[in-house]
Amino acid sequence: MSPPLLKLGAVLSTMAMISNWMSQTLPSLVGLNTTRITTSDTLTQISPKEGWQVYSSAQDPDGRCICTVVAPEQNLCSRDAKSRQLRQLLEKVQNMSQSIEVLNLRTQRDFQYVLKMETQMKGLKAKFRQIEDDRKTLMTKHFQELKEKMDELLPLIPVLEQYKTDAKLITQFKEEIRNLSTVLTGIQEEIGAYDYEELHQRVVNLETRLRDCMKKLTCGKLMKITGPITVKISGTRFGAWMTDPLASEKNNRVWYMDGYTNNKIVREYKSIADFVSGAESRTYNLPFKWAGTNHVVYNGSLYFNKYQSNIIIKYSFDTGRVLAQRSLEYAGFHNVYPYTWGGFSDIDLMADEIGLWAVYATNQNAGNIVISQLNQDTLEVLKSWSTGYPKRSAGESFMICGTLYVTNSHLTGAKVYYSYSTKTSTYEYTDIPFHNQYFHISMLDYNARDRALYAWNNGHQVLFNVTLFHVIKTEDDT
């Protein structure tokens, strides 16, 4: 190999070393080599909060305190462990910075040679063109040697261009490492400025105050819907998925019911993660087929509408038996009074902070929505409210704190258009938009434990976060 090619071999060796170092070292430093649950769509993981958060606070015209809070899980961070991890990360970054400096010096040295060789090659190319124009006056042997040398060097030009790009990336990476080192040093200094015992006491005091505040919170009113978060893509266009709002914090089972008719199979998953990965834990074969997609799991039991009837079934997952069944008097069924999209969605069962509900329509109420509160054990109707909203005009509906919220469509442009309060027996027209990303919602239910809406959107299982307005009760409130 001629001297220029030997030098180029050293350049390419340097590039290979840099590429190998970046592929093996960087992922371990920034955490990209950790195992993650992947799906065809992105799942947004919600990590436990490390402290109480106050989103907003104010006073209403009557002088009452108004605030929005988010309660954390009951755990405290270890300052010593975090400081040690921070120091270790800082040391790795500093070592990485030194390695980058060495690589950068070597790269710059080789880069200068590349530029020099590139100039020589371009001059050689110009000379060759001149020779090409007057080749008849030169000896055939010299011309052929020169042409062969040029043919040997021409394929290396793209390699040199790529090397110039890699050298620029190395310089940028060096600057990013320098900035990261500065940030980590600042964080380390800030953490060291606080005494651990003092921080711990401040957290305990804040938790106590916020717990007292939350005990005085009234039931919330829906203010905003955000999302959706796509959890999974599976099943047909229509179906239902849900968790139990009365389950303990450690119980995160998910139930999955595909289709709106001609099915009796319920699939259970131990967690959202298992649901996403498809790790099914148990299958239930119900004694009856269900109608619609408006089922609910509440306190360990599944409540669903029996196919081609207005009968409600209570089925226990623990015993695998039907615990109760009762006809919902006068309720339309089998696409007599469904939601806009049809699908035998005449009877919608749901749960909120107050209890178990059934939403349906009757001839006696001219096809308008009727809300009934149910006894969760016997399925007896405790009380009913007749609204003036046509059931067939509703896209979907859900209950929050005893108020029914009705969407105006199951297609694009959907928003919460109407609400009815069972506490005051009054209604109002609202305008709360939400993003119907996949254009066809066939199930939308509120979960009081998660403070979220579960939805089945055209074969996509998605979550919507809700923002509720809470008022703190005073001693004067009854």
From TrEMBL:
It is found in: Secreted; Synapse. GO terms for biological process: signal transduction. One of its GO terms (cellular component) is synapse. The keyword Disulfide bond applies. PROSITE patterns: OLF. Residues 218-470 form the Olfactomedin-like domain. SUPFAM superfamilies: YVTN repeat-like/Quinoprotein amine dehydrogenase. Pfam families: Noelin-1, OLF. This is NOE3 protein. Residues 79-141, 170-216 form a coiled coil. The keyword Transmembrane does not apply.
